[in-house]
């Protein structure tokens, strides 16, 4: 784990760190399943961020100002969130065209979220496809 990312995880409350670690793990598992071996892990805007050479950046974070939620962020200049809304509808709560919002008490819809992560990790290769090939 990148040192700055590790320090960021250590700054979260323990329960939040555990939740966000699941998201991080899902990103790496999904990348491996998609044959993407070189994920760049860093901090962008103070948030853990993940980028593949053929994809669009995925970030996530928790804010003390909204302690009951955390978000997974996608590039708002892509069609990712629009596609997620079309494919998954009410499965997720969305924040505009930039994030999926989760309540700290809810179970993660792992299969659906992994598919969204996959689309983001491969975005440059699939952006020309209807519904990103979903």
TrEMBL record:
Can you say what this protein is called?
A: DUF1801 domain-containing protein
Top-level division of the source organism's lineage = Bacteria
């Amino acid at each position: 784990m990148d040192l700055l990312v590790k320090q960021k995880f250590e700054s979260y409350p323990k329960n939040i760190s555990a939740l966000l670690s699941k998201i991080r793990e899902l990103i790496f598992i999904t990348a491996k399943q998609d044959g993407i071996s070189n994920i760049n892990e860093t901090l962008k805007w103070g948030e853990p961020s993940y980028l593949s050479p053929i994809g669009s950046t995925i970030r996530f974070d928790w804010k003390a100002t909204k302690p009951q939620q955390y978000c997974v962020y996608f590039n708002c200049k892509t069609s990712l969130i629009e596609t997620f809304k079309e494919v998954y509808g009410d499965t997720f709560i969305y924040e505009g065209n930039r994030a999926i919002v989760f309540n700290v008490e809810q179970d993660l819809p792992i299969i659906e979220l992994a598919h969204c992560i996959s689309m983001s990790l491969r975005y440059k290769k699939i952006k020309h496809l209807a519904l990103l090939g979903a």
